[in-house]
Input
Amino acid sequence: MKAGPSQEEIRRHNLGTLLRHVHIGGSMSRAVLADRMGLNRSTILGLVSELTSAGLVREELPRDTGRAGRPSLVVRPESDQAYVLAFDVGVDRLTAARIGLGGVFLDRREARMRPDHREAGQVTEVLADFAHQMMDTTRQGTVCVGVAAAVRGMVRRPDGLVRAAPYIDWKDEEFGESLTRRLDLGLPVSVGNEASLGALAEHLRGAGTGCQDLVYLHGDIGIGGGVIAGGQLLGGDCGYGGEIGHMVVNPRAGRPCGCGGRGCLEAEAGERALLEAAQRDPSATGREAVRAVVEAADRGDISARAALHDVGDWLGIGVANLVNILNPRTVVFGGTLREVFLGSAAQIRSRVNSHALAASRENLRLRVGALGDNAVLIGAAELAFSTILAGPLEALARTST
Amino acid sequence: MTATPILRLRGIDKSFGPVQVLHDVSFDVHPGEVTALVGDNGAGKSTLVKCIGGIHPIDGGEYWFEDEEVQVHSPRDAAALGVEIVYQDLALCDNLDIVQNMFLGREKRRGLVLDDATMEEMAAKTLEGLSVRTVKSIRQQVSSLSGGQRQTVAIAKAVLWNSKVVILDEPTAALGVAQTAQVLELVRRLADNGLAVVLISHNMNDVFAVSDRIAALYLGRMAAQIRTSDVTHAQVVELITSGRSGDLGLATTNGATA
Ligand SMILES: Nc1ncnc2c1ncn2[C@@H]1O[C@H](COP(=O)(O)OP(=O)(O)OP(=O)(O)O)[C@@H](O)[C@H]1O
Ligand SMILES: [Mg+2]
Ligand SMILES: [Zn+2]
Output
């Protein structure tokens, strides 16, 4: 029989939970923390002072003091002291950010990626360069507590092997491992799928805050997906779960898909399908191109309208399936699907209302992402923060060697 | 989704001279939700909203607010209840700045002088609370703002007064796609923060993107009030153009209600 958790394990758990509360929720008083964590005030006091001496939180007067009464101190994350590095490997763009505890962007770099510079080795070099630039500017005593990267591909759990990232021609790439070696920070680089991380970000800080069951659809060159079920990211057996873009909606008469299949949601409702249906250059993908179609439709352009109508129809069919299987509270449209959603919500909703089961859809909310183009980076940062949030003091001890 | 409406109208009639514009209209508005009010040009949407806002006196019917029957004879009465309206013919003064517009007619004073500091702070806080980051300075003249920013200021003005119900008459009609998206997100955020929001729009994508319920007016009668999760685009279009769709809507289109 397993014994209950030790004092030590409880303490570690409580420290992590407290840190997570102020990391996600922002500054709050000890009384609020005691209430949210269900602990008495003296326990909270002890936890706060431990985290304070570790340099992870600080107590101070709230900025915005109400007129009446004596303001009580709030516990605030030390955003300048502890930070993570987050990377986003896009299809034509590399982005990096240094993000402080509490989710504050402290620094940010971006570079366009030429099609002939997409090899994992070259990407690793650029990201390492960004990392060093951003770390050079930090003050003494600040500490990097995690690193994570997002890729548009299938990422194996737990080792982060990138099995396939078709849009940048990667196959079985040991990307996490080589970036870890190249950065040499004594921290393993976690790797995640871009839409899974987007889902995490919208769940923790965006349109799905407070919602434990959420589906995130990310429009990019393809359609990525991420599922939060019961507050947890759904990965499946090896981490490949959530590939909503390859949900088969039209296998018989459908369009060919980049995966080799036919009639996947991404093939029917992705940017290329939209642009082609709107009689535009299907290779000129990206936000501007998608927005131009929505604008043209708004001005009455017939082919743009028909294209959005069709794409909305397929998206609605896809969402209806997801609603029947997962019963999410919120479905979030991010990336360029934000524009597509706003331009075809009538079709999407109509399909959902026709095909999703009445009980499953009655509390369903369809929302656009609240984090805009930062969703993926923010999600990567949250992945990078997970170690210190699991055991703050242990994680710090490991980094300060 | 709350069960009890904050605002309930029952049997509202309204005529202008010999012309009856609203016939026996019922209308419910729920906190935490966006209710889309739709209908063809001339269906009576703006008139209904002006009755709610106390601009037009109603000829008959009941006006219930938070489970009490109330009498609303003026915009002041509506404001006292916590009902704010952003009218279709947007009432912002071009030659005044954002703060002056938000407090127009309801200025804060300290003794005899205007309390600019408090007004600035309240205006800034309201805009910040709505996550509005597009305006550069709150002392900017309204004439220098884009259409979307003007709508944003008008909406901020409506929520400044701890209002409970905010009614927006075609806030996106004159806007481009990007600005419409911003205003719709703002509309959604207001409801997610607990306000009851009424959105009048002719754009079915806007309606389906943000609403929780749809109320369709047809020739001055309320054809149906339904949950957005229970109808299709085609059904709503039918309700707008003919007052009925299958089991939904008016029993006959030339008189009695269902
Ligand atoms: N002050 C008024 N005096 C006389 N008739 C009026 C007045 N205001 C509105 N009406 C009439 O009432 C009817 C309903 O008008 P209302 O403005 O409420 O329609 P609406 O549904 O808002 O239309 P739209 O979509 O075009 O804004 C119209 O026939 C209009 O001409
Ligand atoms: Mg009108
Ligand atoms: Zn596919």
